[in-house]
C-alpha cells in the first residue's frame, strides 16, 4: 500500500498531456497549497507554476518550474498586474487565514480577497478557477450530518456559529456565481472535510499534542458518530482533477456539458470516502505515536455529563479569563455525526482517494513526530 | 425436554425466551407445502431435506410453490455431491469421475450410490438417490438446465481440490485461493439460486448483471462458517483459514490455539472477520433485488444469522477452544427481523456492525480497517434508507446562505414582517377587548355586582399572604 501518488493515479487520458498551462496556486506555501504544487508537478511535469502567498519562505518546491511571489491578495490592483504578467490559464485559490483571527480580517481575506482574485482572473483571460471551500459550510452547531450531499443548503450568517465558515461560504458563492459571467471563464469549488497530512497545523498536530498530554484515556460520547477526513494528497489530486475538468469544459466551447456531467459553477464535497467513528480516527493516530490503552481502560464520558462539566469549567475558568480544554462547543463536536456522500465528485470529477486513510495517518503522524524531534533538537 | 442448563439460561435472559415464543406463536409461513399432492418419491425428498439440513430445510419449505421443488432438489443434489467429496474413504480414482460427471448422473434413472463409508452422515441420501433423479425429471427444463450447469461447475471445482495434494496437506494458501474455494462451495450456489429466482420471475433480472452481488451472498455465508468452525475443522484435520492471513500473526497454524498466543489469535480472527465484513454491504444490495417475500426470507435469514455469528466470533477467544453458536433466542429474534422487509434487516446489520465496532481494539493491526468496514455498512444503509434528507435541514429564510447585502435586504423585510405581526396582535386585542367589554356591559345591565366580587377576591388574596410587616421585620 506504500505507493506514492505519482505511481498510482492519473488516468491515461490525462497522461497524454504533460502540462496544464500556466497555473497560479494562491496560498501555495500553505499546508494544502504546497501539496497541490507537488502533485501538480508529478502529474503535469511541464506546467509552469506561479505561487502567490503572503510569505513565501516556507514549503518551497525546488523545481525550476515554480516561481514564488510574496503578495497580499486583498490588493486588487497589484493582483491584476501580476495576473497580466503571468498570462494564466488556471487559478487554484487555496489561501485562507487561521480561523482564530479577528472577524474583520477573516472577511477581508476570505471574501474580499477571493472577489479580487475573481475580478483579476476575469480581466486577464483566465480559463479555470478552482476554489478551496470547506465542508463545514453546511454544518450547523446542533444537528449532525448523515451521508450529506451537495443538495444540503448552506448554513451561513447568524445560523452559523463559526464566523470563519460563513466567510468561506460567502467566498464560495462569489466563486460559483462568477462562473461563465465572462465568456470562457469557468469556476468550481471543492469542500473538503477534516484535512490532515504531512505538515498540517490543526488536525494531526492537535492529536499528537493530546497524546503527549495523556488525554488518550478519555472519550466523550458513545463513539457511534461517524466522521469524514481527507488526506491532503488526495485533496490536492481533487484540485487538479477539477482544474483539468474546467479546462476540458473550456475546450469544448461553445458546446455546453450535460447537467449530469457539469463541473463548472458547481461545488463538490471531497473526503477520503472512508467515514470512520470519530474516536477510532483519533486512536488510529495515537497508536502511531506509541502504546494506546485497550478499550476497557478508556473512561467514557457520556455526552450529557461532559456537557455539564464543560459548562462548569467554562464558568469557573471564565471568571479568570481563561478557557478550559473541554468546552461545550468541543463536546458537541466530539460527539457529532458528520459524514458526506461524495458520489458527485466521483462521477463528475472522476475523483477517487488515492491514499487510504490508514496510510495517510501513518504519513501525517510520522511527519509530525519528525518535526517534534527537530524542534526538540534545536532546543537541546 | 429442554436441558436444565437452557432453563437456567432463559430464566436470566427473558427477552430471548420472549423471542422464541414470539417466533413460535406469530410466524406465519408465506407458503406451505401441500403434502396431499406430493408423490411418494417427492415425500422422500423432503424427508431427506429435513435429515440433511438443519438450517435450510425450514426456509426452503416455505418457498413460493413455483420454486419449492426445484430449490429442494438443487439442495439435495449439491448435498449428494458434497457427501462424495467429503468422504475420505473413497479412493481418488473413483471419486474424481463421480464428481466430474455428477451432472450426467442426474439423468440416470434409478441411480444410487452405496460406496460411502459407514460413518458418512448423509450416506443414506445417496443410497436412495433414485428418488431425487425421479423428481428431477419432472422439473421445468429451464430450471433443470440451471441446476445441471451449476452441478457441473461445482463438481469440477471439487475434483480440482481433491486432486490438489498441496491443498490437502497445507490447507488454503492465499486470500485469493480462499475466495476461490468459497466460490466453488458457495458462490456457485448463489449463482444457481439467483438464476432460478430470475427465471421464476421472483427477482430483478438486473441481479444477473451484477454478478459480484450474488458472489458476495455466498462468500459472506461461507466465510462466516469457516471462521466459526475453526476448532471443529482443526480437530477434523482441515484448515481453511488462508496462510496469507494467519502467517501475519503466528508462525504455525497450530499456534493460534495456544493460550500464550491469545492476543495474536484474536487479531488473526479479527482480520478474518474483516475480510467477510467487507462483503456485507453487497449482500444488502443483493437483497434489494428480490421481489418475492418467500424468496426474501429464504435469502435474508441466513444472512442475518451470518452477521450475528460474525459478531459472536469477533475477538472471542472461546472459538479457538470449542464450537460456538448463537443462542436459540437470538436466532428467533433474527428470524423475526429477517422475515419482514429490507429496512428491518438493515437495522439488524447496522446493530451488529456497531456491536463489532464497539469491541474493536486499537492495538489490533486492522483496527482502523475494521472501523471503516463498519462505517461503510452504516453509510450504505443510509444510502438506501436515508435517515436525514436535505429538506429536513432547510434553514429558515433569514439564516440561509446570504451575502451581507442580501442580508441587509432580508433584515428590512423581517422588520416589516415584525410590524405586520404587531398590527395583527393589536387588531386581535381590540376585537377581544370589544367583545369582553360588551359582555361585561350586558352582565352589568342584567344586575351583576362587580364591586362585591372584587372585594371578596382581595380579601381571599390578603388572607393567603403573610402580613407584609412581619416579613419586612424578618428580613432585617
TrEMBL record, chain A:
Top-level taxon of the source organism: Eukaryota
GO molecular function: 3-beta-hydroxysteroid dehydrogenase [NAD(P)+]/C4-decarboxylase activity
InterPro entries: 3Beta_OHSteriod_DH/Estase, Lipid_A_modif_metabolic_enz, NAD(P)-bd_dom_sf
Stored SUPFAM superfamilies: NAD(P)-binding Rossmann-fold domains
Main location as per UniProt: endoplasmic reticulum
Cellular component, GO annotation: endoplasmic reticulum membrane
Keywords (A to Z) from UniProt: Endoplasmic reticulum, Lipid biosynthesis, Lipid metabolism, Membrane, NAD, Oxidoreductase, Steroid biosynthesis
Ranges of residues in domain 3-beta hydroxysteroid dehydrogenase/isomerase: 25-291
PROSITE patterns: PROKAR_LIPOPROTEIN
Cell compartment(s), UniProt: Endoplasmic reticulum membrane
UniProt GO BP: ergosterol biosynthetic process
Membrane topology: Peripheral membrane protein
Assembly notes: Heterotetramer of ERG25, ERG26, ERG27 and ERG28. ERG28 acts as a scaffold to tether ERG27 and other 4,4-demethylation-related enzymes, forming a demethylation enzyme complex, in the endoplasmic reticulum.
Protein family membership: Belongs to the 3-beta-HSD family.
Name of the protein this chain belongs to: Sterol-4-alpha-carboxylate 3-dehydrogenase ERG26, decarboxylating
Organism encoding this protein: Pseudovirgaria hyperparasitica
Taxonomic lineage: Eukaryota, Fungi, Dikarya, Ascomycota, Pezizomycotina
TrEMBL record, chain B:
Enzyme class: transferase
Gene3D superfamilies: Farnesyl Diphosphate Synthase
GO molecular function: D-glucose transmembrane transporter activity; squalene synthase [NAD(P)H] activity
Listed SUPFAM superfamilies: Terpenoid synthases
Subcellular location: Membrane
Catalysis performed (reactions): 2 (2E,6E)-farnesyl diphosphate + NADH + H(+) = squalene + 2 diphosphate + NAD(+); 2 (2E,6E)-farnesyl diphosphate + NADPH + H(+) = squalene + 2 diphosphate + NADP(+)
This protein's pathway: Terpene metabolism; lanosterol biosynthesis; lanosterol from farnesyl diphosphate: step 1/3
One GO term describing the cellular component: endoplasmic reticulum membrane
GO biological process entries: ergosterol biosynthetic process; farnesyl diphosphate metabolic process
PROSITE patterns, per the entry: SQUALEN_PHYTOEN_SYN_1, SQUALEN_PHYTOEN_SYN_2
Keywords: Lipid biosynthesis, Lipid metabolism, Membrane, Multifunctional enzyme, Steroid biosynthesis, Steroid metabolism, Sterol biosynthesis, Sterol metabolism, Transferase, Transmembrane, Transmembrane helix
Function comment: Squalene synthase; part of the gene cluster that mediates the biosynthesis of squalestatin S1 (SQS1, also known as zaragozic acid A), a heavily oxidized fungal polyketide that offers potent cholesterol lowering activity by targeting squalene synthase (SS). Catalyzes the condensation of 2 two farnesyl pyrophosphate moieties to form squalene. The presence of a gene encoding a squalene synthase supports the identification of the cluster as being responsible for SQS1 production and suggests a likely mechanism for self-resistance. Catalyzes the condensation of 2 farnesyl pyrophosphate (FPP) moieties to form squalene.
Record protein name field: Squalene synthase
Organism of provenance: Pseudovirgaria hyperparasitica
